[in-house]
């Protein structure tokens, strides 16, 4: 490695370093800089500036050479990333291509990555459901993983804190399985969704169909206007980057906010190789960074380091941060670093149609959201032969009849679309049980162009997941039949883990340093000035889309870190 | 506006040439650059006539005026699997001397259960329809696409609109 420390140590020293600029890194940078700390944010990919670097955002459908579709050449060159629903002609530039960053699939795992400033916060599905007490107490009650060192009450004020700034739309549904938050007005359910919601409420006392809580500015508040963001326009082209800042991303919200303080140094093209641990001081002193372009190595220093590189890459950096004190990776006395990785089970779908409500339809905007069914299985007590349960998405739309025939008949049919039946669909979001055998690890010899070891991913479904898929298909079909839906079709895609893009764990939180890596403040038990607040910290996965929880954990951890620094405890 | 006027208007506006590559049309060449499949001028003539029969010009432009036949070829060339391309080309070759009447060709292919002809006719119909409905002209003038639609209405009565042809 050639070191190229052209600037002096003082110039490379900050009050805080944040590794990663995605949804949690953005929050860390915002919180540190607002509290007055001179912060360095390192991002391995190129810069993506809000409004300036969204090249496709205002393109019309006909301006895409293949009208959005992927070419055969791109699919063949990218067997993994081309499976992702959002990897299409309009947004493929925001995803990691297979050959640029290879990894070893010891078992099939579709690793979906976005290497740029903003990371996957540009591309996420924007669903923001809070965890409830039932989720945090899960591992302790059901005897898996380890007990979460926090409970809902610890995170509730921080959920409120991040919700107000990010802007979350939703209804106060009053469900104990999905606590209400600080909501902007909810998006509207359409006729068939309202109908189904009513039928389910009539039939099952513990099942609910609600509109998803989503990070969209339905009615922007002064705090959002101050960020330069405006009302969501229902374009549903979010993955291109939004010219209105209508949805929350690091690019539109936390990063410009942090830059405005004058305290943030945002440094793209900076691959973090490892965290430097000083054996004499017994703490981390900084990070080693490989320039993504020149490959030059530079060290940066700070008294506190936040690792927000996205779940698996956070594992990779910590595993690669070896020292005399930590020969197996930073903070890894327990030997559990990289183990108990879990994800969400997104395999199953049910679709159907509804012949009712024939004289009504939806119109106007393309709502970038859908319905949500919170977990109803095993909530209050164990009631099935599998552990935990699933949430589900639910959505409907009015189809149009296919235009028939040829010539002028066909043309008339195409230009005068007549409504067909309502089409409805649901997909499962199952909790998976973290297991010691679901791991990520480093290849002993193979390295990439940035001197980083090749990552091995060894993650699989288990019997619990199979039973849950079967139960979801059965229960959803039953609910659909009860609602009078017809042509009910069930599907188990058998997709590999990873495509859910909800990989979590490997650096889990817990009470005990022998069985966990992080304490209740997301601090490494054995290296207190290093914090992990992205998906890697998750002790269990529950069923909710996890980003909101990462945001809340991050804001809480920064608050704790800064308070500790002021007291001289870091 | 009558049909002839509409078409000449379209050509003036240049909307129909959105799909044409920069190469100049010559006698022995086709008007689109293709990488994988090979189309000769005779086949192109057939495909053009067939597209015009699938969606004809009326008081508004038809598929060929909007370049939908060339879009279809681009999609076959760039996006189809090798097997689908082979079936498409085999179907095309066996039909290229026929009269470009899609209804008649489809009926005959179905009666003969000719898999390649059926694949060709179904794929070509689908792609011509896509090229037409997703053309700038249709998405601007006939079924306007709203890039910034604004408000979403979840539940409204189905309205009957004046018929377009």
UniProtKB/TrEMBL annotation, chain A:
Belongs to the GMC oxidoreductase family. Residues 434-553 form the Glucose-methanol-choline oxidoreductase C-terminal domain. Its cofactor is FAD. The keyword Repressor does not apply. Pfam families: GMC_oxred_C (PF05199), GMC_oxred_N (PF00732). Residues 197-331 form the Glucose-methanol-choline oxidoreductase N-terminal domain. This is GMC family oxidoreductase. InterPro entries: FAD/NAD-bd_sf, GMC_OxRdtase_N, GMC_OxRtase_C, P2Ox-like. Keywords: FAD, Flavoprotein, Oxidoreductase.
UniProtKB/TrEMBL annotation, chain B:
It comes from Flavihumibacter stibioxidans. It comes from the Bacteria. Pfam families: Gluconate_2-dh3 (PF13618). The lineage of its organism: Bacteria, Pseudomonadati, Bacteroidota, Chitinophagia, Chitinophagales. This is Gluconate 2-dehydrogenase subunit 3-like protein. InterPro entries: Gluconate_2DH_su3.
